[in-house]
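Subject: for your reference before the review

Hello V.,

The reviewers asked for a structural picture of the protein, and I figured it would be easier to keep everything in one thread rather than splitting it across files. Below is the amino acid sequence we used in the manuscript, unchanged from the supplementary table.
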Amino acid sequence: MHWMLLPYRRYAEFTGRSRRREYWMFALFYVLVMVVLNALFGTNEVQRGAGTFAYGSRLVGAGSWVAGLFWLATIVPSLAVSVRRLHDQDRSGWMLLLMLIPFLGWFALLVLMCLEGTRGPNRFGPDPKNPAGADIFA
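And here is what came back from the structure prediction:
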């Protein structure tokens, strides 16, 4: 739970670096909350038409309000942890604008979020895996 809630403690901190674990555990936490909200307030729909078949789920009633408030509370920490994740790779946080490019930009960001960060300190701060940054035996 520590890694899932850490971005909320660093709410609007766009400086520094974040590990992959912090980013992906935060993403997992978001997905789990949405799954629980869907289980509590969701409705499943099957639509059939002229040669089409669609299955979907949507939140109804109070669930949509709760999910909307959760999204509002999560958007700033989500952007902040994404920027810090890019900083960990010594990349500018402005690369997050790749998400505006459908499919290719999304895929590029997915790949970037999976890559390991630079070892040792970089221009955005000390290594989050080794904050002392001291390679004693190197």
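For the response letter, the relevant points are probably these. The chain has four helices and two strands. The radius of gyration is 19 Å.

Happy to draft the paragraph if you're swamped.

O.
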